[in-house]
Amino acid sequence: GLATLPLDGFVSLDGAKGPPSKWDARDVAPHSEMVTRSFSFAGSRLHLNVTAALQQWGAERAELRVELLEPNHDRIEGFTFDDADSITESGQSQVVSWRGSSDLGRFAGRAVKLRFYFKNCKLYSFQFK
Prior knowledge:
It is globular, with a radius of gyration of 16 Å. By secondary structure, it is an all-beta fold.
């Protein structure tokens, strides 16, 4: 037999799943969060490999947003959760943007952290191009 996996599809971080129906009384956080270590990058755009959950049985819509942080966890103005455009669909190269702009070139070579907020989706990988 032959097994194949999609690109970077072996391990994922799975976002919180909203209640599948109005009768499910579990207390579920609205988003899962993950913060990276400090790192610097080359490139100007952040690409994500993400799979959105199937919209069935009344599940909430998938959503992923990214914040850009200073190494001390301070949010960078213009790149916060509220500024982030939601990613709601699956894709191996979803481009992250904030208020319609995806250019991160001014941060290249500088130490930063990323905070991912996600629900009803799987985050496989990220890279800068």
